């Protein structure tokens, strides 16, 4: 069992700085259910929290200070204290809202479309025009004239000035001229007048066009009736001109046909004359050609006769040569046959003479021949009939005399006695 250790007294804390009155009251109001919370950790946490809040506030203020200007716009920066103006190009600029006020101004081209106005022409006709314009704010004098620009320049400045220019210039033109050919001229003159006035206010007017031109219904009906009458008159003129051209075309066609017939008759007569002349000239050549053909046929007949004679002579000569060749061939065949008979007879005689000598020299050849002609199932064996001593002495005598031991026969025949045995 462990002995209880004596409790140590807590170390004296360093002397704290004097607390603020607000924090002291806040801490006194908190319920005290345990030992007192040390003041130093709370102060560190509060200080860290205040630093974070300050950083966030500074970051948000910095973010608000960066202001961006899109493409096609120019920023006019007005100092809140001095009132000075500064032009800012497109991009992001650091201008705190507390010190500067940024006004984006569009300097790219803008369109004024489908704006209608009523003008009075030279005849006093009220016509409605649809005007289209392309304009832009002049960037060069923007700072000097920015204060005089309205909030909506298109409807508060450009449109009134342009409409006033059209109403001033339109009474110089007749309505029919405007409809047909003077519309672009009116737009150019009115645009030049409005361009000069708008340039004084810092606006550049680049292009002006007139779209639709609408006339009053009564005038439009009269104009259409007049247009129909004019078109009817023009159609009559066109019809008369077409009829006159058809009559002229018929006349020219008849004259052309007549001239063509005359030319064809003259050409036909000339062709007949030329044909007659050509036929007369051809007859001369034909007669000469016929004479040449007759002579050529005579020559061909003579050549044919000579060729027949030559072929007959060649055939006779060939037959004679063939006959001589056949006679010589038969004679050669008879000589060859006689020679073959003589040679064969001589060969047979020599063979008989040789066999006679062979039989006389080898008496055993007869029995061998007889044995050879026996049945193929009988085998003949020839054995020598000379005694052993006599046969051996005969061999010694031949060897001493320088002859072969056995005289070889003309045909390789065995020189032994005959013995027969049945084949299996």
Give a quick precis of the structure.
The protein is an alpha+beta fold and 424 residues long.
Question: Topology of this structure?
Answer:
Blueprint: H1 21-29, H2 39-65, E1 66-69, E2 73-79, E3 85-88, E4 91-94, E5 100-106, E6 110-120, E7 126-137, H3 142-145, H4 153-169, H5 175-180, H6 183-200, E8 203-214, H7 217-361, H8 365-372, E9 378-381, H9 388-400, E10 419-422
Antiparallel strand pairs: 1-4, 2-3, 2-5, 6-7, 7-8, 9-10
Q: How would you characterize the overall build of this protein?
A:
With 424 residues, the chain is α+β, with helices and mostly antiparallel strands. Among the domains are: 109-215, Band 7 domain (Tetrahydropterin Synthase, Chain A, 2-Layer Sandwich), CATH 3.30.479; 365-422, no CATH class. 58% of the residues lie in helices and 16% in strands. It has helices spanning 21-29, 39-65, 142-145, 153-169, 175-180, 183-200, 217-361, 365-372, 388-400; strands spanning 66-69, 73-79, 85-88, 91-94, 100-106, 110-120, 126-137, 203-214, 378-381, 419-422. A 3-stranded antiparallel β-sheet has the order 3-2-5, with no helix packed on it. The protein has a 3-stranded antiparallel β-sheet with strand order 6-7-8, covered by helices on one side. Strands 1-4 form a two-stranded antiparallel sheet. It is elongated, with a radius of gyration of 76 Å. Residues 1-19 and 411-424 have low confidence and may be disordered.
